[in-house]
Amino acid sequence: MSRNGTGTVKQPPKYKQIIVYIKEKISAGEWPIGSVIPSQRELATMFGVNRSTVITALEELMADGLIEGKMGMGTVVINNTWMLLATNPPPDWNEYVQSGNHKPSQAAVQEINRDESNQSFIQLSKGELSPDIFPLETMKGVLRRVTENLGTFGYEEPRGFLPLRQALSDYVKTFGIDASPSSILIVSGGLQALQLISVGLLHRGSTVLLERPSYLYSLHLFQSAGMKLSGLPMDKQGLLPGAITAQKKQKKGDILYTIPCFHNPTGLLMTEKRRLELLRVCEEERLPIMEDDIYRELWFDEPPPPPLKARDKHGHVLYLGSLSKTLTPGLRIGWVIGPELVIDRLSDIKMQTDYGSSSLSQRVAAEWLSSGLYSEHVHMVREELRVRKAAALHALERYMNELATWQIPVGGFFIWLKINAKVSMLELFSKASRQGILLNPGNIYAQETDGYLRLSYAYASLSDLERGIRQLSQIVASLSK
Ligand SMILES: Cc1ncc(COP(=O)(O)O)c(C=O)c1O
């Protein structure tokens, strides 16, 4: 309705009022498809108009494909699509959705992301610590202390909350990294670090060399920004550095991405010898490294060898860490350590992206780290994961010995399971989902690892781990026949 100059409300013409009335009835579901609408005579009486006005309205609705005259029945509703009911059709969002620059996740990844929040599933897929391990009481205490000491807060400086960067500087020293707060950038999780690197340091046509399979293949982060991924083979010691030289096609602007500690998805730990070799080759090739070390602290028997970054004397390595796998991904706190020039560039992009990570999360993270509670907590997490890993291995031994092969993990969240028989992984995934078990098929992490599953022992309860693996074995057995 619009107002005219005299302040009285101007009604739309009568035939439009009839159209609106009928559309509202249809869109509210009161007149579903197949309903016979009131006769012309009834409508004319309702609106106090003559039949010709009703006919004008009905003709417009017919032209829109919403109603149709049926012999012997009268006028019936034949369509209730919202698009047809809207006076002005909405923009074609489908076209917009298809044309955005960022590539969508694989359908399987989208499905897993949706089902990972479904509490009724046994989560053998989830790369997250179990709620049973969440340190709720300590977290409440930390939050109370943060609240007590809270001053006003707003945007932080571009590299992030200084006390957190100071706490991180002290913390990474414990595994050999010398980094002053000015070479640390706080980010909203390791994933944002990768995003910032892709847009801040690389260009269209750059190649990202990486282990194959890799977590990075499950995302389209770099490809969406016009970069190529180039997979490198691995053996039990980790990535094979010889393959970097063999490729002989490194260009300016290329970079290497590696997960040397408890690799996602294979769980492999790169040996010290291999680390030194990799660093040497990358230095020779002038190939910078993104070292994603977010599983480092989740070791079982002995700490992993020092990070590549700890040996990096020439600023080759950008080091990525996060609280997501050790404390909670809910804080969305991660960090990048690198040459100040790079940190400045990435912090500028970060400012342009989100003006910094949550001030509150940064204060909470700083309190965890500087109070020493974080180290204590990580110690407890290792104990818990050890128990879970043992339970998963026990169930695998018991139920899957004949059906699959695997390595015993030395840390992290995952067992990389190779199914012995050639089974359709799609069928396996769907069948397991129907039985309430969520799996991560290996082909998310590289096409050729189709016969693999990434099994997480971090999230499910001990009884669910046992039950899930038992049911999985039955499904694999049924598909192997
Ligand atoms: C190897 C690796 N890097 C980065 C991430 C991203 O973690 P976040 O952004 O929560 O720190 C993950 C999460 O699964 C991961 O497995």
Automatic annotation (TrEMBL):
Residue ranges of domain HTH gntR-type in the record: 12-80
Transmembrane regions listed in the UniProt entry: none
Highest taxon of source: Bacteria
Entry-linked Gene3D superfamilies: Aspartate Aminotransferase, domain 1 (3.90.1150.10), Type I PLP-dependent aspartate aminotransferase-like (Major domain) (3.40.640.10), Winged helix-like DNA-binding domain superfamily/Winged helix DNA-binding domain (1.10.10.10)
InterPro entries per the UniProt record, alphabetical: Aminotransferase_I/II_large, HTH_trans_reg/aminotransferase, PyrdxlP-dep_Trfase, PyrdxlP-dep_Trfase_major, PyrdxlP-dep_Trfase_small, Tscrpt_reg_HTH_GntR, WH-like_DNA-bd_sf, WH_DNA-bd_sf
Cofactor requirement: pyridoxal 5'-phosphate
Family matches, as Pfam families: Aminotran_1_2, GntR
PROSITE patterns, sorted: HTH_GNTR
Protein family membership: In the C-terminal section; belongs to the class-I pyridoxal-phosphate-dependent aminotransferase family.
Protein name (record): GntR family transcriptional regulator
Source species: Brevibacillus choshinensis
